Backbone:
């Protein structure tokens, strides 16, 4: 294994990305909920490199602001004069004994194993990641001699018809010792069809200096595919999602349809989980054992314990669901919703910044916000905690074993003591003591012989 503390990663991200047709720099376009370049940074970090440099161009301030990572050295390439010129901007930051790994900010799905292999190959000088494409058009071709040794890389625009027939292409990703790279970069020129400083020209220089240019290939083509337009972005998104679906299925999750789940972040999970179609997982989500997630749920930065059932159309955001609970259909758990074990949160119920005690049930058409709800509480249909007075938020406390009748408003701040009962249709504005019945209903009047109005002719 390579000496990891000597890896210096250089991520090229200065390209304009004109074909994205966007005001946003290309590398900030998102794949699985994270900027393209973030994927490259995350994978780089797994290699535990000494440094990560990102070469940026126009719109770089935006990139720095969004990536906002103190571990990164940002290097401006004022003018985009080619990939060799881009890497040359980093020369002063490279120490001779380091192994430099060059990555592209718009090639997001490269695998850690592929990079580790490449770095190993480069131990005695230089290694290239290449790939055989059915259609090599547009790429730099890997030109080999009769014995099969790499001679050079020839860009499409500089290639003869014979060279254009080569299907082995340069992915752009390469690893090279820093002292060699710096020397070769200083010799680059732009005498070529595009009048650019080609990084690829260092290959012929290496050969001239009697180095063997090692090559290695990724397991999957999509690892080295770049994003130039929104169609390619969507294609890579699907590859990525398919890979994740396969991974979680292998680890104990049944998916109703692996093509209809999107994971935009990190899912940690147990086993015997069933996920129905169209679920979106965002941020950091953890799901315990024996959990069922219904169709069309969105689960973001939330924790779901064992034996939970989430019924269709539910939305969880920064919520936590205790063991054995049942949520939905059509439930919305907003940030700070903490459900204890064996709770039931039913249809059209919204919970925000509230703790719900063990075994409590809030089954229909209810809003509970800024509340502390005890154990075994039953909240009737259409209950509202009126937590906002137009300026400030106030707390509602509902103690253990309280029964709240339907269509009740609890005007916060207010506290309902243990075992209290609230009659249906009440508007509660002052605290209710333990064991009391509180009811604010207008006394019912029944008028016999009542005539309904009739429509005028
Ligand atoms: C490059 C390679 C080619 C390879 C292909 C793979 C060279 C000369 N050619 O070609 O052999 O097959 O990638 O996709 O290296 N960039 C900068 N600054 C620049 C120019 C580019 O940061 O001045 C960045 C771009 O943002 C991009 C990457 O470098 O991420 C590659 O640049 P691009 O212009 O796409 O290179 P290609 O011509 O496609
Ligand atoms: Mg390109």
Residues:
């Amino acid at each position: 294994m390579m000496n990891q503390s000597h890896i210096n990663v250089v991520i090229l991200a200065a390209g304009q990305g004109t074909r994205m047709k966007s005001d946003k720099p290309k590398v900030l376009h998102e794949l699985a909920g994270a900027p393209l370049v973030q994927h490259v940074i995350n994978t780089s970090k797994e290699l535990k490199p000494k440094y990560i440099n990102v070469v940026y161009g126009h719109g770089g301030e935006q990139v720095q602001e969004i990536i906002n990572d103190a571990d990164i050295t940002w290097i401006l390439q004022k003018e985009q004069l080619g990939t060799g010129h881009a890497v040359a901007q980093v020369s002063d930051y490279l120490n001779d004994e380091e192994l430099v790994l060059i990555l592209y900010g718009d090639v997001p799905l490269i695998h850690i194993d592929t990079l580790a292999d490449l770095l190993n190959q480069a131990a005695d000088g230089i290694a290239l990641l290449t790939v055989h494409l059915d259609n090599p058009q547009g790429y730099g071709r890997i030109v080999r001699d009769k014995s099969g040794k790499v001679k050079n890389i020839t860009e499409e625009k500089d290639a003869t018809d014979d060279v254009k027939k080569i299907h082995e292409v340069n992915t752009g990703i390469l690893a090279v010792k820093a002292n060699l790279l710096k020397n070769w970069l200083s010799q680059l020129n732009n005498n070529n069809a595009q009048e650019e400083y080609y990084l690829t020209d260092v290959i012929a220089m290496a050969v001239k200096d009697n180095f063997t240019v090692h090559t290695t290939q990724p397991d999957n083509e999509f690892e080295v595919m770049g994003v130039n337009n929104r169609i390619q972005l969507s294609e890579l998104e699907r590859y990525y999602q398919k890979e994740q679906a396969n991974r979680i299925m292998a680890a104990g999750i049944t998916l109703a349809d692996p093509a209809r789940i999107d994971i935009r972040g990190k899912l940690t999970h147990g086993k015997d989980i069933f996920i129905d179609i169209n679920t979106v997982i965002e941020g950091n989500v953890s799901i315990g054992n024996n959990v069922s997630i219904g169709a069309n749920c969105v689960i973001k930065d939330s924790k779901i314990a064992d034996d939970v059932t989430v019924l269709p159309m539910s939305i969880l955001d920064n919520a936590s669901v205790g063991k054995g609970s049942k949520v939905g259909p059509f439930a919305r758990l907003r940030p700070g919703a903490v459900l204890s074990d064996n709770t039931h949160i039913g249809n059209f119920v919204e919970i925000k910044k509230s703790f719900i005690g063990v075994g409590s049930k809030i089954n229909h058409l209810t809003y509970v916000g800024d509340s502390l709800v005890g154990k075994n509480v039953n909240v009737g249909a259409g209950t509202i905690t009126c937590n906002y007075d137009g300026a400030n938020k106030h707390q509602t406390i509902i103690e253990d074993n309280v029964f709240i009748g339907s269509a009740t408003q609890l005007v916060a701040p207010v506290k309902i003591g243990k075992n209290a009962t609230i009659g249906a249709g009440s508007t509660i504005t002052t605290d209710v003591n333990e064991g009391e019945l509180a009811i604010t209903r207008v006394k019912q009047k029944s008028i016999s012989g009542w005539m309904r109005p009739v429509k005028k002719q």
